Amino acid sequence: MVYRWPPLQPWNKFVRRSLDHLLLGAAIVFCALGVGILGYHFIAGLQWIDSLVNASMILTGMGPVAELRTRGAKLFASAYALFSGVIFLAGTSVVLAPLFHRLLHKLHLETESSCSDSDESSR
Predict the structure, then answer these.
(1) By the number of CB atoms within 10 A of the CB, which of 6, 7, 40, 93 ranks highest?
(2) What would the pLDDT profile of 68-102 be if each residue is shown by its tens digit?
(3) From CA 3, how far away is CA 23, in angstroms rounded?
């Protein structure tokens, strides 16, 4: 069997690549969580644990827990909520990229005979 494109990666390399992407996705999420914790602590004046809870809830799309009293805190919460939506999409994309790449690669594998059959029918 001759492939038109290179063959699929071996399973162990695919798993390793997927784990690398999972770690990168986790790093993206934890960096975004750190931004939220620092913002809620220094801008909104919340305690560290309350900052963690608020940042976690916003990052997961659940909504804020503590009441925000100042304009600065409300503006930060709004900007962080928008930022969190983008981070969620980016993190999901990074984690799922190897799976979709493998799926698309697998669907496009063709044998030499099927390629030559389609070439002859197009003439």
Answers:
(1) 40
(2) 999 999 999 999 999 999 998 999 999 999 999 88
(3) 32
